[in-house]
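fyi for ur records
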Amino acid sequence: MNNNESEFIPYIFPTSVVDSLSNKIQKNDKNIFFLLVVKTDTFSIYVEHFVINNSYQNWIRYTNRKIYIDGSFYPLIFELDEIFGTTTSVPEFLKNAKYETYPLINKTALILHGYHIDFDRSGKILNP
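which gave:
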């Protein structure tokens, strides 16, 4: 994962959310990522484990968004990545674009099994 400080956007969530997430992850576990779902007035954030060779690994490996928890940065992807993103690598995508050949666009959807928090803009946790 690319953790060069000048190459990503750090995201800071409300203290209540960070504290709750911090209690659910193991320190220095670099095999996790977070998925943020934006709703009308609320948000959900999921803690998921990164599995190598899954179709979404490019999203996680190359995201320029990182969530800051307990002194570490972790990959952050958005639900919109599932809707508009492709799991095709950039070189493959550019090669196809150059020749205007667009074979099957690789799409994926995540099945979420991990811990999640629903919260509002103020940081109020909405689920127990």
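Strands lie at 9-11, 32-38, 42-49, 65-69, 72-78, 116-120. thats all i got for now
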